[in-house]
Design a protein that fits this description.
The protein folds into three domains: about 100 residues, no CATH class; about 190 residues, no CATH class; about 100 residues, no CATH class. It has 18 helices and seven strands. The strands form three sheets. The protein has a three-stranded antiparallel beta sheet with strand order 5-6-7. Strands 1-2 form a two-stranded antiparallel ribbon. It has a two-stranded antiparallel ribbon with strand order 3-4. It has about 400 residues and is mostly helical.
Length: about 400
């Protein structure tokens, strides 16, 4: 994502180098490899926002009779963007065509995606304002103290810290503020705009700040205020509004903070540090403090242990103990494509798959990969119906020495 933004800004700056639009097209394809289309839409959203900002600024300057060069009101810019788009579609066609085909051919795919796409559901995945400034419990040095404010990760009785943690570290924040102070808000306006917009989007439909103790649930929960956020406007934009977890917008927010922090360190090195030795020493000190404030080392006595009792169907152990050399295709038995969770819970799926210690077709352990989900749309309904009738959680097809086995995971 930062690389795609770099190529875009070089094109915006008027650098007439054919490598920049080609590089932009290729990096946009790489962004799609991150697992879903959300990150690609975020990048496109950043591009559109920057273009609109320049257009508005150009109109303002024209009204004030100020003569400026507007990088987006010229043919070379749009020619380069067209080249980038063509490269993206050509190089990434193997990924885009199946996705578009599935979305257009199966209306249930869109309904499943939009199952949680409501303002009420989005609150559970929105960042609390404090999460930008407080180390998370994942932090090895601070995970003990973080338990005292764990309520900021709970919303409506549900906690998903991985979607609600936005802590980037005090060093990055201080360097970013120093960078803006040194070069001025006028020169840093693009990065400030990106940070403000996407940080605000990450807060969700209504701002969450602080936490309170819920007596009914006997847990501490994030306090949802009545202050509306710009996510409500974003939620009304067709096509772009598929980001159901507002907290994921902190990806772009942190990218902008990182750019401003780099400006801050550059200014610090140029104005305050008089030698390369001092610059290197300052860099080492900053890195050490950054690691202390943002590391993920399992420093506590809880993190390394599995605390949830898990029943593992013995089929997975049998596969693991088999000396034969074979590859496994795992197909989710989708009971209802309209449901919010049409296949096995991702955590269980990942855990079970890791136990087998065998090569997996698709090779994706983190989530059910796209190829298997698309394949399931073409599996005869009779196969799904039979497996569900038997209470199967997954259908496992094992190919070994020209033999085909179908086993029920609940055995």
């Amino acid at each position: 994502m930062p690389l795609a933004l770099y190529f875009f800004l070089r094109i915006l700056n008027g650098d007439n180098n054919f490598l920049y639009p080609v590089g932009l097209g290729i990096t946009l394809v790489l962004v799609t490899f991150m697992g879903d289309i959300e990150q690609l839409l975020m990048v496109a959203f950043v591009f559109i926002m920057i273009i609109l900002a320049y257009v508005i600024y150009y109109i303002y300057c024209a009204y004030k009779r100020l003569h400026i060069r507007n990088p987006v009101v010229n043919l070379p810019f749009w020619r380069s963007m067209l080249i980038a788009l063509v490269v993206t579609l050509v190089v990434g066609s193997f990924g885009f065509i199946p996705i578009l085909g599935t979305l257009t051919a199966h209306a249930t795919s869109l309904s499943t995606v939009n199952q949680y796409n409501s303002a009420a559901s989005n609150e559970a995945y929105s960042d609390n304002l404090l999460s930008f400034f407080l180390p998370s419990f994942y932090n090895g040095f601070f995970n003990g103290a973080a338990t005292s404010y764990f309520g900021i990760y709970y919303t409506n009785g549900y906690a998903d810290p991985t979607e609600k943690i936005s802590y980037i570290g005090y060093i990055a924040i201080l360097l970013a503020l120093y960078g803006v102070y040194r070069i001025g808000i006028k020169k840093a306006k693009i990065w400030v705009l990106i940070a403000v917009v996407f940080g605000w989007l990450a807060l969700g439909p209504y701002m969450q700040a602080g936490y309170y103790h819920s007596s009914s649930l006997n847990i501490s929960e994030s306090t949802i205020t009545s202050i509306p956020g710009i996510y409500l406007l974003y939620h009304a934009i067709p096509i772009f509004n598929i980001v159901r977890e507002p907290g994921r917008f902190d990806l772009v927010f942190e990218m902008a903070i990182a750019a401003m922090a780099a400006l801050g360190f550059s200014e610090l090195a140029a104005k305050r540090l008089k030698s390369n030795r001092n610059t290197a020493l300052a860099a080492i000190i900053i890195c050490v403090i950054f690691l202390i404030g943002s590391n993920g080392i399992t420093y506590g006595n809880v993190t390394p242990y599995v605390t949830t009792p898990i029943h593992v169907p013995k089929i997975y152990s049998e596969i693991s103990n088999s000396p034969s050399n074979f590859t496994i295709l795992i197909l989710p038995a989708m009971s209802d494509l309209n449901s919010a969770e049409p296949d096995t819970f991702i955590g269980e799926d990942t855990f079970y798959t890791a136990i087998m210690h065998k090569p997996i077709i698709g090779g994706d352990l983190t989530r059910s990969n796209t190829s298997e989900e698309l394949y399931m749309l073409n599996v005869p309904m009779a196969v799904q119906a039979q497996s569900l009738e038997l209470g199967a959680r997954l259908i496992i097809l094992i190919t070994c020495q020209r033999e085909l086995y179908k086993r029920d995971t609940d055995d």
